[in-house]
Amino acid sequence: MFKLVISLSVIATFWVVSLNLNFSSSDIDIEETTVEKLSLNSVPKEEESVLIEASPNSIVGHKKIKDENNLLKEITYLLEKANLLSTPESYEEALNIYDEIISKVECSGEDELLEYFAKAYFAKASLYRNYLEDEDESFDIYSLLAEKLKNSTNTDLLKLYANAQFLKSTMTERDESIEIYDEIIEKFEESDEVELLKNFAYAQFSKAYLLTNSESIEIYDEIIQKFKDKEDKELLKELSNAQFSKAFILSDSLQDKKEAIEVYTEIIEKFDCYEDDDFREEVDNALFAKSFLLMDENSEESMKIFDKLIAKYKDAEGGIVPKNLEYSIVNNIELALITNNSDIEYQELATQYLWDSKEGKAQVEMLEILKNAQDLNQDEMLEVWKKEHESFYFENWSFKELEKWNQDMESSESKTRIKKYLTEFQGHNSSRAMIDTEL
Q1: Considering its fold, how many domains does the chain have in total?
Q2: Does residue 357 come out as left (phi exceeding 0), alpha (psi in the -120 to 50 range) or beta?
């Protein structure tokens, strides 16, 4: 039986997003639509003054706008120049230019200029961390930037504040990281802005990762409660991430299958009503996870859910067999074996969809050997299987259900024979690992 691994990929999503914020100076975006692209050797030129008859106030206003435009051009030029110099050979010169940018705009009240100020700070911190290997200085730079931006009312600047905080959290011990996440959570939890609420969720997920299982569930419940009535689809994605994370801990760590099944049912009921495909993956993953957990106590309902997934995916276009289809076919072949039901329908589906799948073919053939071993010796077929699938690993597979089926057998002869084959299949990974080591 395929193990329940879907939720793990969902759980991983939040910290990939949260922590993939390390600004390389070469990655800083220069908006060429804002100003003309400047070459490394060019210098911003003063705009020629146009004499017009105007009031003193309008002249002052015109001069201010012109000065701001000139400053923006100069800053853009300097930032691009520093980016080009951000190499192991010339990063010191780049640092000097980033400092020049910072000094020119740190007192500005213009949001656009403060974004360039932040870009210079991020780039400077990245150089200290990656080239000078000075994490303390890099941490201090992020701290100064976060302090500068934390009271802004501009959403883009507040996102940069959060980015600086998240980057700080990657350079600290557990307790200090939690304090940083708490700051972000407190700052954004009452916001109505989607982007800021997403950062609230990222901080909650990151914090949960550092806590005990029960504490993590409390945090996931907070996210669920906050986002359950939201309409924005990005926030609903965070809702489903929290639900999957909670369900995984319940089933995998706390061994509370019943409550985990309830959470998966909530996901299905919440998102199955969407007519578009935005939440199709969430619904299908929840269906698969629920059916997996039902196998022990309600194999009939488990098979029905797998049947539903098969019906959804078997007509998929593009020539690629979805993993949920592959897993559902194999799992129902196993369930048919365990419950002593016909697997003809699923064997036909396997022939149609899985014979080009190294993983699927190996598993289906293993189950066929076990089925036939109830009545006949399968030593020869086992040797054929070993030779054909010598390089195959049982990666996402659990033998738990097959072992229980074997233990409950009434025929001692069949029980002994199948136990022998199960032991051979379970030892296949170890044999494969030894071969790889020798190579």
Answers
A1: 2
A2: beta
